């Protein structure tokens, strides 16, 4: 078992232990999994995604939580496409193509809107989605070595902070 896969499994078990009733599920890593691990996460609901592509591959990815963009994962070059979500809209599916690198990505929302970022449309196909109907994308993890070499999705229900109920 590779070190990255072991880290991913430990992450899943930790999240499952703390997930309580969030209906957590995990879409397994696609791609070669070689290179530097990344994890893009935030405390708010995912409200946007940016994807950079260069030549035939996806070079980097970034998620927005609330109004804050999380740290970008991958090579800091390429052509960027940005997709902002509407209020109460969520990312509910990620698909694309991969070989050693991630070639293309398609993000689909709960309203049926989508962002398609194409590098080279060849390779193995993948399709990621939550196991639970009310769950949505909460964070991404994977690897990069210049371009993205791996991506996995983590799904759970989003609940507003319980502190708002007591204010």
Automatic annotation (TrEMBL):
Q: Which residues form the signal peptide?
A: 1-19
Stored InterPro entries: Jacalin-like_lectin_dom, Jacalin-like_lectin_dom_sf, PolyBind_ProtTraffic
Nucleotide-binding among keywords: no
Q: Which GO terms describe its molecular function?
A: carbohydrate binding
PROSITE patterns given in the database record: JACALIN_LECTIN
Alphabetized, the UniProt keywords read:
Lectin, Signal
Q: Which residues form the Jacalin-type lectin domain?
A: 24-157
Looking at the Swiss-Prot or TrEMBL record, what is one Pfam family this protein matches?
Jacalin
Asked if the keyword Signal belongs to this entry, the reply reads yes
Q: Know the name of this protein? A: Jacalin-type lectin domain-containing protein
């Amino acid at each position: 078992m590779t070190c990255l896969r072991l880290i991913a499994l430990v992450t899943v078990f930790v999240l499952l232990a703390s997930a309580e009733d969030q209906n957590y599920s995990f879409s397994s890593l696609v791609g070669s999994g070689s290179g530097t691990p990344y994890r893009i996460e935030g405390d708010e609901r995912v409200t946007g995604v940016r994807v950079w592509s260069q030549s035939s591959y996806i070079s980097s990815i970034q998620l927005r939580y609330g109004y804050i963009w999380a740290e970008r994962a991958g090579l800091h070059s390429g052509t960027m496409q940005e997709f902002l979500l509407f209020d109460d809209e969520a990312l509910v599916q990620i698909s694309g193509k991969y070989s050693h690198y991630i070639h293309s990505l398609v993000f689909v929302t709960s309203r049926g809107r989508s962002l398609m970022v194409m590098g080279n449309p060849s390779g193995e196909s993948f399709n990621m989605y939550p196991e639970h109907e009310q769950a949505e994308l909460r964070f991404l993890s994977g690897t990069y070595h210049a371009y993205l070499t791996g991506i996995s999705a983590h799904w759970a229900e989003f609940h507003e902070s319980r502190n708002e109920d007591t204010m």
